[in-house]
Amino acid sequence: MHAPKVVVEGLCKVFGSNPQQALDMLAAGATKDEVLKRTGQIVGVHNVSFDVREGEIFVLMGLSGSGKSTLIRLVNRLVDPSAGKVLIDGRDVAAARRSELTALRRKDMSMVFQSFALMPHRTVLSNASFGLEVAGVSRKERERRAMEVLEQVGLAPFAYKLPSELSGGMQQRVGLARALAVNPSLMIMDEAFSALDPLKRKEMQDVLLQLQKEHRRTIMFVSHDLEEALRIGNRIAIMEGGRLVQVGTPQDIIANPADDYVRAFFDGIDTSRYLTAGDLMQTGAVPIVSEIDAANVAATLNGSAGYAFVLDGQRKIRGFVTRDAIGNAAPSMRPIESIRRDASLDHVVARVVASPYALPVVDDHGCYCGSVDRAHILKAITRSRGSHV
Ligand SMILES: Nc1ncnc2c1ncn2[C@@H]1O[C@H](COP(=O)(O)OP(=O)(O)O)[C@@H](O)[C@H]1O
Ligand SMILES: [Mg+2]
């Protein structure tokens, strides 16, 4: 297990001349509104702790004003904390000197904002390579790297155009390309796709997910849109009034929203769409036999079990044997299709309705990890639709 990329511990930010007074009130349980009324100090972030793991997309979600932007500015130290600390790769960001910070921001962190000025008189290529230019990379090298990322985001044919010749969505891709070109170990994206219309936004989410498949980066992504968070987040942190109310995987949050504030984000969203075979599977519902024992299947198929999956030594699915086979000298193994752990609910439903048997679920290596069947899937869908919609 890697050390976390980012560790945030007891982080607080109070905007105003007397943060200590506000911090004392908060420690005694006062809310952001009470602090503002009594002291005039604005609570940006209060007592927030979490880790961001290497290679994950960590989404910060919450209503406008809940402290998302302040929190990520504390992470890259554009804002100084009133209390608490931030570690990046185990280094305390608050203790870093100016020069170290500048180097950190140039080399290790990239920011993508909702709207950031592309330089209108520079080409797309020159805009995309700007971060590298600031970092002092030679012209030839930076243009080569910028071209590479323009290809990745589908903008290579537009490299020598000016930003004004591109649509809004394409301009946003230039921003993404600029951030990617420096190949940062941490990308920070603040509402990067929020200004785009829903179609373009989904397109950018797909670009990001595809890039993530090719090259896993650690990304902190701010969004006020739960559907976006569910689509792209490996984990989601939900903020309210400067506090962190819940951190978890999309599935954790769908299954167990911490409170009504979190639940309200689900209004009008069919959360079952975000469940995968891995979320829906059961373990231990279907007996397992090894290839060698498949002939002695009677011993395994006691009680109610009508069939068993047959696994090889690497836990790969070989097929299945049924109770009918008992008594036969050599019960024949029959083939069965398996479902990938990350398959969507739609895929799972289409497969299980067509199968009288439970289907095995396999991980990335094709190893058995559980099973899905009609009755169980139906229950899971009804539960998630019933409670949120
Ligand atoms: N520079 C600042 N000075 C005073 N208050 C600020 C400043 N920046 C943010 N705030 C306040 O901090 C709170 C959190 O803001 P922000 O982090 O921008 O929220 P979000 O990004 O979730 O919309 C808000 O109440 C906001 O008004
Ligand atoms: Mg913001």
Throw out a few tags for this protein.
23% strand; binds magnesium ion; 16 helices; CBS-domain; 2 domains; 36% helix; binds adenosine-5'-diphosphate; single chain; alpha/beta; Rossmann fold; 4-stranded antiparallel beta sheet; 6-stranded mixed beta sheet; 389 residues
Structural class: alpha/beta
Mean pLDDT: 87
* Helix percentage: 25-40%
CATH homologous superfamily of the largest domain, by name?
A: P-loop containing nucleotide triphosphate hydrolases
What's the helix count? Answer: 16
Question: Which strand-content bin applies to the residues?
Answer: 15-25%
If you consult CATH, what is the topology of the largest domain?
Rossmann fold
Task: Just name the CATH architecture of the largest domain.
Answer: 3-Layer(aba) Sandwich
Q: What Rg, in angstroms, do the CA atoms define?
A: 26 Å
Number of domains: 2
Query: What is the highest CATH level, the class of the largest domain?
Result: Alpha Beta
The number of distinct β-strands equals 16
Note poorly predicted spans.
Answer: none
The order of strands across the largest sheet is 6-7-8-3-9-10
**Compounds present?**
adenosine-5'-diphosphate, magnesium ion
Shape annotation: globular
Subunit structure: The complex is probably composed of two ATP-binding proteins, two transmembrane proteins and a solute-binding protein.
GO molecular function: ABC-type quaternary ammonium compound transporting activity; ATP binding; ATP hydrolysis activity
Organism: Paraburkholderia lacunae
Membrane topology: Peripheral membrane protein
